[in-house]
Design a protein that fits this description.
heterodimer; A: alpha/beta; Rossmann fold; 2 domains; 6-stranded mixed β-sheet; 20% strand; globular; B: Rossmann fold; 8-stranded mixed β-sheet; 12 helices; 8 strands; 39% helix
Chain lengths: 411, 300
């Protein structure tokens, strides 16, 4: 036993794990009851590891080897409707194939947790990392959390259940394919007893039960409608309002759960983003996922050259932490945003979010957006440094905001 | 004991006042399906006429617990319900997946085939009105040769329907059967039997559609019976590989009095442009299938 703060915590085991095994461990420790998944590179080891846990008797769960991702999420939503804690994992095309069910799970307010191993989407085929897959699903009503390393994958999945089951919104835990999924690093695995203390059993808000028959997800008209007892019930529009409200309010739950996690396990997730040396920074690098780690290396290099550089590593993309971001960027005069995704015809998605957050604030920083790392293109800290230097130079020359993003590639 | 109108479960699970069209065979079939399951059921329904029958929030005409699920996902949803119940240690409830022919023959076939291959423990019922009737009558994989529809509006469909029950039987599941809304006792008994069997069970229920097929809505039962009397629908069950003709099809086989298919086709406006060649082709298809059934039946 060890003490963290004033709390007594049983010692965790440290193991060398890749991201996929960390995700599987996170699901196992969360005592998931129904798992349904379909193999896709680079997610497949998650499904294999969970199968091994179930067949080997280490995890008491139903494992359904479905024939498609659409079915994987359909199994999870229906199992959730009868009161089971459910888990699935996928990547890229699998997530795209799930699109309809992603909307359905959020619309039905089911606390499903999904691990998305971020991978590029075709055509042309590409199995390597970028974040176009999960970014393309941002408007499906899911909470999206991005991990920077394998410890965060495991921790985020456990927290995801607590968040999802508090606010009744599904949670997607995203991590970079290969860069994390297939890269081993030390991961603390908390004891089951401690996780049980943190994450109580799932208490469903909707249960299909013959003893109390209810019909769920019926055709719902736009306007409120009176039921047989004369009570005015929500229309479709009100149900959609409630989903938006749940996501808005989930910010508090996400940070509270992250703080509680920290108190118990010594690793706090009390903020929606990671801050590195923002206190005195007038130049801020923004990145999401593993790239936010690379950005810290770049900041080190830029600091050595005399620049006051900090890093804002986005952890939660939905709900987007607007006011917190504004506060964190208060001192900045240049914000350089690196996106591993592109909203074709505009710019990177996180760039748009940051710009939107800053609108109406007193911050008038120059914002530069670089599209990087698509389809597994390696992103080196040196390249981030060059991009920041290039931005600084052109700003000095009076070239402020650009209409479109710049790309770090050979065109 | 043979089921009759007197010893059938009295309780109703489908309340009067549903939103189905007049003369809807589905509402009749669904009424008897739910009776046979005596309330010990959880239903999953994709987009279909049955969605309409279930009503609009916050009012429903069905007293069985039900979840609506996207079109392609009926069998996967049923798998999830079964898995969830098992994980929670709840038993004694039948999971019923019930979809139309569009949701079964077409968009839902992949999920259904996979669930049957996994031997997931639920009852799947396809109610077949031979087209996308909920969206206003477009052709499906079950629309017959020569039938007019919204997407075969002038020439009629140029291909015949697929034999979904044979496809499901090929999965080696423990129980498949055909039924018809015009023979509710036969349907009721098959659902009762299917309820006691474990694994994936499949029942195909023929449900004539008055507006879609263009016949007077007072003729639903008659059209359904004519389908059996002419061999367009054959009532049978296959339990652990043993094939038995049932109800009217058994009697017709014993009396050898199958009527010409033309009599069935001519009653419906959807076949008004059918050609003589198409009628002959359909008759040949019916004859061949009827012979196969006679050869296989152990109860003749």
């Amino acid at each position: 036993m060890i003490f963290v703060g004033k709390k007594m915590v049983r010692r965790a085991t440290t193991r060398i794990l890749d991201g996929n095994h960390a995700a599987a461990q996170g699901a196992k420790l969360s005592r998931v009851q129904v798992i349904a998944a379909y193999p896709i590179t680079p997610q497949s080891p998650v499904t294999e590891t969970l199968s091994e846990f179930v067949e080997g008797g280490e995890l008491d769960a139903q494992y359904i080897a479905v024939e498609s991702e659409h079915s994987a999420l359909a199994v999870c939503t229906s199992a959730s409707m009868v009161g089971a804690r459910t888990f699935t994992a996928t990547s890229a095309h699998g997530l795209a194939y799930m699109h309809e069910m992603l909307h359905w799970a959020a619309g039905a307010r089911l606390p499903v947790v999904l691990a998305c191993v971020n991978r590029a989407i075709g055509a042309p085929w590409n199995v390597l990392n970028d974040q176009q897959d999960s970014i393309s699903q941002r408007d499906t009503g899911w909470i999206q959390i991005y991990a920077r390393n394998n410890q965060e994958i495991l921790d985020s999945i456990i927290q995801a259940y607590k968040i999802a089951e508090s606010v009744y919104v599904p949670v997607m835990v995203c991590y970079d394919g290969y860069i994390l999924s297939h890269t081993e690093m030390p991961v603390d695995i908390p004891s089951q007893e401690d996780v049980d203390r943190f994450l109580p059993l799932y208490k469903p808000h909707t249960i299909l039960d013959p003893a109390n028959p209810k019909n769920y997800n019926l055709v719902t008209l736009a306007n409120p409608r009176v039921n047989t007892e004369g009570v005015l019930c929500h229309g479709y529009m009100e149900l959609r309002y409630l989903l938006q409200e749940a996501l808005q309010n989930s910010r508090e739950t996400i940070t509270t759960v992250g703080r509680e996690f920290g108190e118990l396990f010594g690793r706090s997730y009390a903020s929606m983003f990671w801050e590195d040396r923002l206190d005195d920074a007038d130049i801020v690098i923004v990145a999401m996922g593993s790239l936010a780690m690379e950005a810290i290396v770049a900041a080190d290099m830029l600091r050595e050259a005399g620049n006051k550089v900090g890093v804002l590593g986005l952890r939660v993309f939905r709900p987007f932490p607007k006011s917190d971001v504004v506060q964190a960027l208060e001192k900045s005069r240049l914000v350089v945003i690196f996106d591993k995704n592109i909203s074709y015809g505009l710019e990177g998605a996180t760039c748009s979010e940051i710009k939107s957050a800053l609108y109406g604030s007193s911050i008038n920083a120059v914002i530069r957006n670089f599209i990087v790392g698509l389809g597994g293109r390696d992103v080196k800290a040196r390249e981030l440094v060059d991009a920041v230097n290039k931005s600084l130079l052109s700003v000095k020359e009076g070239d402020l905001n650009k209409e479109y993003p710049e790309w770090i590639c050979d065109i | 004991m043979k089921t009759n109108a007197v010893n059938m479960t009295e309780k109703e699970y489908l309340l009067p006042g549903s939103r189905t069209c007049p003369g809807c065979a589905l509402s009749l079939a669904y009424r008897h399906i739910l009776k046979a399951l005596e309330g010990q059921v959880i239903v999953t329904v994709p987009a279909s006429c049955l969605t309409v029958l279930h009503g609009m929030y916050p009012v429903t005409s069905v007293t069985a617990p039900c979840v609506n699920t996207p079109f392609a996902s009926t069998a996967a949803s049923a798998t999830g319900l079964v898995a969830g119940l098992k994980a929670l240690g709840k038993d004694g409830v039948t999971v019923l997946a019930i979809a139309g022919d569009g949701g079964t023959h077409d968009i839902g076939l992949q999920a259904l085939s996979a669930a049957a291959e996994r031997q997931n423990d639920f009852l799947y019922i396809c109610y077949d009105n031979e087209g996308y009737m909920n969206t206003g009558n477009q052709r499906s994989g079950s629309t017959p040769l020569g039938a007019l529809s919204g997407t075969t509006p002038i020439l009629g469909k140029q291909q015949n329907q697929k034999d979904i029950t044979a496809i499901m039987e090929a999965h080696g599941i423990p129980y498949v059967a055909t039924a018809n809304a015009s023979y509710p006792l036969d349907l009721y008994e098959k659902v009762r039997k299917a309820r006691t069997i474990r694994g994936t069970r499949f029942i195909h229920v023929f449900t004539p559609c008055s507006p879609g097929w263009s016949f007077p809505f007072s003729d639903t039962i008659r059209i359904g019976k004519l389908a059996v009397e002419t061999g367009w629908v054959i009532l049978y069950e296959v339990e652990d590989g043993i094939f038995r003709l049932t109800s009217a099809s058994e009697s017709i086989a014993k009396r050898d009095n199958l009527r010409p298919l033309r009599e069935y086709l001519m009653e419906q406006g959807r076949f008004k442009n059918i050609t003589e060649d198409q009628i002959n082709e359909l008759q040949g298809w019916v004859n061949a299938r009827w012979k196969r059934c006679l050869d296989r039946a152990v109860n003749l």
